[in-house]
């Protein structure tokens, strides 16, 4: 007879931790004596407990619309994007400098982005014009009513970059000075800004 102690949740946690360690060993291809913490650093994999906490907080905030407590403060989905709740790797937060331009570039596609909040409704709009100002494509995205105008402006730029091919030159125009400042700051931990920086680095590679 085999005796097992602990609750079902504790036993599941032990089994999951063991499976997680086996996966890390396969990825890192190191000796089995290497600690789990070292394997996490070598592979860049997030610890399971931190991942579970992050997913739980995001679900509570965005899916259930509840306030979450982090440290001694309460946060809701409306101010999540401006709060450093989860620490991003420093290389994802490097500054990206933008050039102000009042006149659209010639001989290239130009994409105009905008975000707004009207009657408690928030949305983003993007339109792409060719060299003769003909509309190539356009899209409108309805966001959560809890979203900020900053998020709407930034999300419009994110959509524009997603639709950009690596082999083409385009001009992207926005009237949001706050988004420019966030892109140029190494201390901006907004998730949408980090996602934009990732796309910019990928396109410029």
From TrEMBL:
RNase H type-1 domain ranges (all copies): 105-205
Entries under PROSITE patterns matching the protein: RNASE_H_1
Top-level taxon: Eukaryota
One GO MF term: RNA-DNA hybrid ribonuclease activity
Pfam families: RVT_3 (PF13456)
Gene3D superfamilies noted in UniProt: Ribonuclease H-like superfamily/Ribonuclease H
Name of the protein in its database record: RNase H type-1 domain-containing protein
Biological source species: Araneus ventricosus (Orbweaver spider)
